[in-house]
Specification:
Arc Repressor Mutant, subunit A, 5 helices, two-stranded antiparallel sheet, mainly alpha, two-stranded parallel ribbon
Length: 134
């Protein structure tokens, strides 16, 4: 059950329940691949969509740099900052795995989802990888 602002419990819609179950499984340490999850791509600008679709190809347990993701979408490494910005605006954290990407130096950079950088460190660890340092 979800809570609304006035604390009334609300059952999630039927289409959302399997996604919630998969997220719970994932966070318990049983990796899930969310690349088949239906997303409203209208929420993303064309560049963001290219970044998010490429990010979905980096599977649980893998990490990469923003530069690698720029290259994966056919851009030059200089676009890595724009890739990081797009990931920072990701409306579907975890489902589109923005937490699997960091700087070229292996350093973790900001994370806009709840929990910030602590969450960005924990999610790869749950998935069996740890690339980032603080």
């Amino acid at each position: 059950m979800l809570l609304t602002e006035d604390t009334e419990s609300v059952a999630p819609p039927d289409w959302l329940r399997p996604i919630i179950e998969r997220v719970q499984q994932h966070l318990r340490g049983s990796p899930e691949d969310f690349s088949d999850t239906p997303l409203d791509w209208d929420l993303a600008a064309p560049f963001q969509r290219r970044v998010y679709e490429a990010a979905l190809k980096t599977k649980s347990g893998q990490t990469a740099t923003y530069g690698h993701l720029a290259k994966a979408i056919g851009e030059v490494p200089a676009v890595s900052r724009a890739v990081g910005t797009a990931l920072g605006q990701n409306p579907w954290p975890l489902l589109v795995p923005c937490h699997r990407f960091g700087g070229a130096n292996g350093k973790m950079t900001g994370f806009s989802a709840p929990g910030g950088m602590d969450t960005k460190l924990k999610l790869p660890a749950i998935e069996g990888s740890q690339m980032f340092s603080v």
